[in-house]
Design a protein that fits this description.
Elements (H helix, E strand, L loop, with lengths): L1 H8 L3 H4 L12 E8 L7 E5 L9 H4 L5 E7 L5 E9 L13 E4 L10 E7 L13 E6 L6 E3 L4 E3 L8 E4 L9 E8 L9 H8 L11 E3 L9 E2 L5 E4 L9 E10 L1 H14 L20 E17 L1
Parallel strand pairs: 1-16, 9-16
Antiparallel strand pairs: 1-2, 2-5, 3-4, 3-6, 4-5, 6-7, 8-10, 10-14, 11-12, 11-15, 13-14, 15-16
Amino acid sequence: MRRSLLALLFALVPLAGCDLNEDDFEPRVVVEAFLVADEFLPTIRLSETAPIDARYTFEAYALTGAEVEVALLDGSGEVEQTFGFYENVGVPGNEGSFPGNYVPTDGHRVLPNRRYRLTARVPDRTDLVPSSELVRAETLVPDTFRVVRFPPDTIRYNILAPSPALDVTPSVGEGQAVYIFSIEALDPDNYELTPTIASLLENADDVDESDFVTTSSPLLNEGNYERNPDGTLRLRVPWFAIAYYGPNRLSASALDDALYDFIRSRDAQFNPTTLSPGEIQRVLSNVENGTGVFGSLATVRTEAFIAE
């Protein structure tokens, strides 16, 4: 489930696959790494950007031979503990070989409210990063939170009624917490699409049902959630984000600043806007000497049956 959630929310294909000016194109390292509070260190994916006239796939542009580390920092920014990674190449050409995927050597669980630093050296690719430089990025992991009131086990789909809600304890950290919902259909082969998504498919030629097995909400900040008298937050799942009837997994995630900046700036590239192309900002990245995102989140999950 985590793989499908991250692939949906933080897909880097649009960022990695093009550059705004073909004449000025220079290849860059692309980082995909997402720490989840209280879960084990994840696989880190490294690739390189593709020219504007090329189709990007991670497999075609996977970056091999890098030296990757993640460090846990103390309150003063000094390294408290370092965790190594190895490239999961196995035997080249075999099904168990995954170039560009760097796997942790330690079973460390990510600590909430702590800062981590990623460093990567690419010794044989001075066209990407000078030999004296490191690809670097930092993330401050959001605090964990929990669900105190769950939605009903069965929810009748009705866009005229209030949408399903989770009451959660706040994710306490630096600044205002920003949340996002992910909804995963657990049995899409045996249940129909909801009316909103079904009507969308009728009028679109370039999408199919499989695109909606996992969906997400817009970013939810202070203007999008309710504060309950007991100090908890009420996060509502938008009806349009529920694509299938039947059993669904609802996940709410609190995002760090890096993921928040990345998602909001990425969405500006593709959502309808009144800005002219020259006014649309580039996707924001916290990666030094590269691009992409090294971010973190804290997640809670529940399941509900969506009935007609």
